[in-house]
Amino acid sequence: MRHFPQSDRPLKIAVVGTGIAGLSAAWLLSKRHEVTVFEADDRVGGHSHTVYAGGVPVDTGFIVYNEVSYPNLTALFTHLDVPTKASEMSFAVSMDGGKLEYAGTNLAGLFAQRSNLASPRFWSMLRDLVRFYRQAPDGVRDLDPSASLNDYLDSAGFGRAFREDHLYPMAAAIWSTPALEIGNYPALSFVRFCENHGLLKFVRRPIWRTVDGGSRAYVERLTASFRDRIRTGTPVRAIRRVNGAVEISAGGAEAEWFDHVVISAHADQALGMLADRSPREAELLSTFTYGDNETVLHRDETLMPSRRRVWASWNYLAQSGRDRTAVRKPCVTYWMNRLQGISDLRPCFVTLSPLHAPAEDKVIWRGLYQHPLFNAATLAAQKQLWSLQGEANTWFCGSYFGSGFHEDAIQAGLAVGETLGGNMRPWSVEGESDRIFRTLQGA
């Protein structure tokens, strides 16, 4: 078992990447050590990206959280006095331009399309939905850890209507993953995630919240103590580990030396930076792949369900044929007026992978986000990721350590900050590292 005794002197530490994983690690490390943060983009925050639409701050990546499923993020917001407010979470599906539409908010939403009342397929979906919510938590407990969601659904006899019209669209919207690829996700991990986020409850679901003023408000508070140590527009070209030190080549400047490096970029990006990667680093990091999602902030209502009564906070749109299979990235439109409490006088939407281009005169901002894709192989790799920590004075963190969300990323970042830096997070929460596989080795 490897241990990391604390140095008597402040360490010189490079942090690569300014998503929540890198920022939380840098924030904790900077309390005791000399930290330099490298960011390839011209802004700080990663998926925490607030854009102004007509003077109103609107988030385009990280939008909502809840206090039950995001304990460390909640504690961070409390510690930094970040202003938050309640949000409204609801989900709608719109297939084939409105041939099938429903919202899961209430009976009025479920049957906003009157023909659903007489649709055997729709009633089959509802029956399986109720059965899945009730049976899945116990049904997956005895499964082999490598069993996929499809394996469980097949063995339990869940039908196509439930999969194609509800479960896969809902999960695709959550993970920004093509719908039928969801079936490859490990069943046990999938159901545990749904349980942890209150998605299998009919009543008493957790209250979702959003940052008042946009996620930029928490990024500004989090970076206040080390803002002068962040170098934006400075992509890291190469990382080399030599004689117990780390050489960083970034931007157009000469290489610099550090005692340690924390790489909080995506797994594939981290691997690409390592000029002298070890076989173990290559084996584990190469397991993770990412999907690109074109993201558009706009005011075009044609990228919402055709029936206004179906409009929800999250709206999954698809066409039949290939769009209902694994090959197409999900089109998901977030109704930001509802999610962030923005006045309804001017509609404001964020759409991932639009089915069609929004009207150009209604586009406010375009961008690209990447999300990790998960399967049995990535789950197996996650269980071994922590064994890389500290080898050749190199550390890794990111949302890929868990389920790909903000809480996963902050747990990984804080765990690295504590293990390397010697300072503990200034709060105590139940299950502080339960979204990642943080082993005793190196801890």
Automatic annotation (TrEMBL):
<keyword id="KW-1133">Transmembrane helix</keyword>
<dbReference type="InterPro" id="IPR050464">
    <property type="entry name" value="Zeta_carotene_desat/Oxidored"/>
</dbReference>
<dbReference type="InterPro" id="IPR002937">
    <property type="entry name" value="Amino_oxidase"/>
</dbReference>
<keyword id="KW-0472">Membrane</keyword>
<dbReference type="GO" id="GO:0016491">
    <property type="term" value="F:oxidoreductase activity"/>
</dbReference>
<protein>
    <submittedName>
        <fullName>FAD-dependent oxidoreductase</fullName>
    </submittedName>
</protein>
<dbReference type="InterPro" id="IPR036188">
    <property type="entry name" value="FAD/NAD-bd_sf"/>
</dbReference>
<feature type="transmembrane region" description="Helical">
    <location>
        <begin position="12"/>
        <end position="29"/>
    </location>
</feature>
<dbReference type="Pfam" id="PF01593">
    <property type="entry name" value="Amino_oxidase"/>
</dbReference>
<keyword id="KW-0812">Transmembrane</keyword>
<feature type="domain" description="Amine oxidase">
    <location>
        <begin position="20"/>
        <end position="271"/>
    </location>
</feature>
